[in-house]
Structure formats: C-alpha cells, structure tokens
Amino acid sequence: MTLENHEKAPVHAGQEASSPRYTLEELKEHAEQLFSVKEEVLAGAFFGTQDKLFTVAEAHTKIEQFMKAKVD
User: Fold this and answer.
1) How does strand 53-54 pair with strand 22-23?
2) DSSP code of 66?
C-alpha cells in the first residue's frame, strides 16, 4: 500500500468525500513523507482515536490543530 503525495495538498469542499481513507497505522508509517512530522506527533494528534479511518487531508488538519494547541 502506498500513500499518494498529491493528497498532501489541501482539498476543496466535496472533494474529501471521494478520497481514500487510511488506518492510523498506515498514516504513521508515512508521517514524515506526508506531513513532515515524526510518527510520535501523529500519535499525539490522534490520541484516543485508534480504530478509525482518516483521509490524508483530515489527518493533516488534525496535526495542524495539535501543533497549534495551547500548552499549559
């Protein structure tokens, strides 16, 4: 299974529905290639969502939110 690089670009409304969905493990394997982060960052961003499928765009958004989150 390979993840396609063109999916890294932001998607427009309606386009995401037809995008392939991947397990968290598949996304972790390609974290640096797709999101320029280590898999530990991806794990933190998706903490508590282990059994779901995500598009690359959804994962990218979740990682951005995680990286911008306020730390107490």
Assistant:
1) antiparallel
2) H
- DSSP string over 9-63: S---TTTGGGS--EEHHHHHHTHHHHHSS-HHHHHHHTTT-TT-EE-HHHHHHHH
**Euclidean distance between CA atoms 44 and 61, whole angstroms:** 13
- pLDDT tens digits for range 48-66: 887 789 999 999 999 999 9
Instruction: Look up tokens 């499928």; give the residue.
Output: 53
Structure tokens at 71: 């730390």
CA 4/CA 50 separation, integer angstroms: 22
CA distances from 12 to 7, 34, 38, 62 (A): 12, 18, 26, 16
pTM of the model: 0.70
